[in-house]
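Re: your question from the hallway

Yes, I did run it. Sequences:
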Amino acid sequence: MARGSTRPTSRDVAQAAGVSQAAVSLVLGDKWRGRVSEPTARRVREAASELGYRPNLAARNLRLGRTRTVLLVVPALTTEFFAEVYTGAARVAAEHGFGVVLYPSPEGVGPARDPFASAQAALDGVIASSMAADALTAIRGDQLPLVMLDSDPEGSLGAATVNLDIADGIRQVTEHLLSLGHRSFLHLAADIPSWTFEVRARELATRLADAPGTELRTIRAPISIEGALNATEAALAAPGPRPTALVCDDDKLAAGAYKAVRRAGLRVPDDLSVTGLDDLGLATAIDPELTTVRLDAEAFGERGMRALLAVLEGRPPEKGDLPVSLVVRGSTTAPR
Amino acid sequence: MARGSTRPTSRDVAQAAGVSQAAVSLVLGDKWRGRVSEPTARRVREAASELGYRPNLAARNLRLGRTRTVLLVVPALTTEFFAEVYTGAARVAAEHGFGVVLYPSPEGVGPARDPFASAQAALDGVIASSMAADALTAIRGDQLPLVMLDSDPEGSLGAATVNLDIADGIRQVTEHLLSLGHRSFLHLAADIPSWTFEVRARELATRLADAPGTELRTIRAPISIEGALNATEAALAAPGPRPTALVCDDDKLAAGAYKAVRRAGLRVPDDLSVTGLDDLGLATAIDPELTTVRLDAEAFGERGMRALLAVLEGRPPEKGDLPVSLVVRGSTTAPR
DNA sequence: CAGCGAACGTTATACGTAACACTTGCTCGA
DNA sequence: TCGAGCAAGTGTTACGTATAACGTTCGCTG
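Structure:
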């Protein structure tokens, strides 16, 4: 956008090159083949770089009615997971001449009157994590093309969805723990209403229902080390037999659980096997390293962007969930 | 931006309300006091909400030559530090009717032809971390008002700077370790060329030069757990007396160092005291909890945004560095 | 030599908004 | 009685761009 001293416009370039503004637009828009001669085109390009011309994107957007910019709505950026999702989405976008702008639903900022008042400056579409669902009504109001990440394929009001195969990840975790001999499970669940967490709870319950002689308890905590610490500490202090396996909804919760285990004078994995989900850097920073489910966040972002491009072009988006894989490290072992 | 079936414009609203487009603009722009009657204003507002009218921001931006949107340029979002900076900046921005858009210099995406081709859709100014300096030339080319975060106040080409008092943090770390009795120091430095890291090295060297009988070695690593692990492992395996204190450029490096210490069969803090810098969630997730320097990332973002607003309004930005504080936890103790 | 495409441009227009410059009717004070 | 002043609007314009529609000049073919 302009400074105090206004920037050169395409008309200024035209004047400098001795051509019409339309010719400038043609040359700089790379639509001049067969319409403008090579020498003239060169003159235009030289004049443009001479003046330091930058097209006014607001004007371009207005004219074209499209911006080649999409919005990625994510929950507060407190883990690197969504940073990687962004990276993947941005790469695919760049390959198609699109840009990606990030909208972290601002924690503590309080919902702006209209969360998109400014970011929506110019958007062709939106990719939104189901964890930032509160912003969704505003988006739907805008009727923008929408792709949901990790969201219920049924309940998404017809929006395209791109999902990680979380259920399969939980299945692998469960089978791993069962095969080690665990029978008494504790589920440390995130207390955020989001489809991605519902899937974890449902799959875990289903699998254990199929395994005779198992039992499952569930506790909830906000996704933070502090929250997980408190919830786990309370659960460990509860009367009755201690569970031998703790399945956490994500790695951060697992890190909090580690602290609770230490405080209780117990050890991971000897007294309690712990699993996470995400495979963030955190998973290998803690001791022992965490057995967790590896999610390919970058691929997730790439897939999300490709789906949005498909929607924009009226094509059907790719189907099928993205595969995940169990990474076995030192935080799980056979129960004593 | 518009869907296939075009969105209603202010003219459509005007027609529905039986007034002119100008009146709609006045009412919705809240500039109607004394120009439009209360009942008419109400009719306009009702028609607008009836039709689901949303102003076309591209048109507004073009008309006004300003967007009330600023760009926050950060290095790859691999820690929560910049997430908090964003939160602070976004809060202040919202209070002034501005929006903030994030531009994480995309790791592995490769510099777009013009890094701002799309994000710059409409920007009034830029806040940039000195750690993302590669993008800077492009910004300067745009001549946008600029505020630099953690950057050399001298060498910033006249751009306003907002700095954390990192030097004071390192001073506090050094005094803490000296008072515990440490004399042999190792500095695990980030191998990124950025002013904020130069300050750490300089201050540490200066302080130790003033303390008789001390020695200092420096090793470098990329900011990742893996990188820090490798560099520290090599240093610990080197011949000669082992240092007793390891000063890390940030918490993530410290987490990597922990792993190297464990692999060497040593323990923190008994065999080696370790300090970090940032006070991320990671600092309390690892065991023992990390003695580190607390940076108020949110305040940093707030200050940055306020500085940019000042520049935009032609006022001089606030001076003075933001204070930081040492947080002593379990990773430091007296040398044996 | 009529006529017909290329080649090389130009002119004109619209995108949707905000704001300036007007108009019209009324009230009110001198 | 008359004009100043105000309320309550409307008409028009410009922001900078991309493109559809329109000329003009050639060279060439039949």
